[in-house]
Design a protein that fits this description.
The complex is a heterodimer of chains A (138) and B (206). Chain A has 138 residues and is an alpha+beta fold. In chain A, β2 and β3 form a beta hairpin. Chain A is 41% helix and 19% strand. Chain B has 206 residues and is mostly helical. Chain B has two domains: 73 residues, Helix Hairpins (Orthogonal Bundle), CATH 1.10.287; 104 residues. Chain B is 74% helix and 0% strand. Chain B is extended. The chains are: A alpha+beta (138), B mainly alpha (206).
Chain lengths: 138, 206
């Protein structure tokens, strides 16, 4: 199945590739993986502790084009959002935006999980209780 | 009605283990499985259905193909575990409940980064010796992990079989079985991850 134009566009020009310091107390890191396909996705965000706004987001993904596009899109979407707003991003939003076919839906799930894991990590660093739903065991 | 016709018109079989009239145990005697497979295949052979009705012929073909799937799955020890978990409702492909073992992710990520570096160095004509050595040692490390996973898979499978025997004697080891299924699932997830990696590294090191 051919990739949609948007997937190809993100794949060829991925946004926000790179990494932030894991040690930085304001950086949350989410590392998630899908065992079926062997994909692994790292999503990091620097969050302003006073405003809860995500000021910077970086990713690095080893996986198929859809996984890269999903994480690239996720970093674009979370930037400038508050933690609460970012947590409301659903994998189905990513599926719709990138027109992912059914066999690639797990890539969008991975991206949603990565957002939750990164925010969960940041909350942990700041001693904020993490609701069970946000605890991604990946 | 002949015996072969009965085989072809029998109601749909619920799972691969019962195709061979086996309990849901993970240890299977291969010689006996093969013999049973040949027997059943022969019963379903199209030659036995030359004079049968269209419906019966179609059914026998369908049964044959089920039988082949069943045999192929049960022959492979890993596919067998995967199948058992699927019919026991402990493994659903494609759902995001398939979780990667967290302790592996970090290493997987690092290895992938080294692989990237090697690819870059290759295309830029840089010095590959140090990178290759790093990957080779990582490769060994993951091979060893794979062996450990397989050893544990074997041990947990034995444990599972023991609970099947216990159940046959009348007690219900439900909680124990749930824990075993969960562990088997984790082991399979880790295994497929490691296998993919080892294959990728092998490709790059060629």
């Amino acid at each position: 199945m051919a990739y949609s134009d948007k997937v190809v566009e993100h794949y060829n020009n991925p946004r926000n590739v790179g990494s932030l310091s894991k040690e930085d107390p304001n950086v949350g890191t989410g590392l998630v993986g899908a065992p079926e396909c062997g994909d692994v996705m790292k999503l990091q965000m620097r969050i302003n502790p006073d405003t809860n706004v995500i000021e910077e987001a970086k990713f690095k993904t080893f996986g198929c084009g859809s996984a890269i596009a999903s994480s690239s899109l996720a970093t674009e979407w979370v930037k400038g959002k508050t933690v609460e707003e970012a947590l409301s991003i659903k994998n189905t939003d990513i599926v719709r935006e990138l027109a992912l076919p059914p066999v690639k839906i797990h890539c969008s799930v991975l991206a949603e999980d990565a957002i939750k894991a990164a925010i969960g990590d940041w909350k942990k660093k700041h001693g904020i209780a993490v609701p069970v739903a946000e605890k991604v065991a990946h | 009605m002949t015996a072969s016709n009965t085989a072809a018109t029998a109601p749909p079989t619920p799972d691969y283990f019962s195709v061979f009239a086996l309990p849901r145990k993970l240890w299977i005697e291969m010689a006996a499985l093969e013999q049973k497979f040949l027997q059943l295949s022969w019963k379903l052979h199209p030659d036995n259905f030359v004079n049968a009705s269209e419906t019966e012929r179609e059914l026998s073909l369908k049964r044959s193909s089920e039988l082949n799937d069943a045999y192929r799955t049960l022959c492979d020890p890993v596919a067998r575990v995967e199948y058992l978990l699927a019919i026991e409702g402990a493994r659903k492909e494609g759902e995001h409940k398939q979780q990667a073992p967290p302790e592996l992710l970090e290493e997987v990520f690092e290895l992938n980064e080294s692989l990237d570096e090697l690819r870059d160095a290759k295309s830029e004509g840089g010095d590959l010796t140090a990178l290759k050595a790093r990957l080779e040692s990582a490769q060994k490390n993951f091979q060893q992990k794979l062996e450990e996973v397989d050893a544990e898979l074997f041990a947990v499978a034995k444990h599972w079989d023991a609970t099947v025997e216990v159940e046959a004697s009348g007690t219900n080891p439900h909680a124990e079985r749930e824990a075993i299924k969960q562990r088997l699932n984790e082991l399979l997830n880790g295994r497929s991850y490691i296998r993919n990696l080892v294959a990728n590294v092998q490709k790059e090191l060629l």
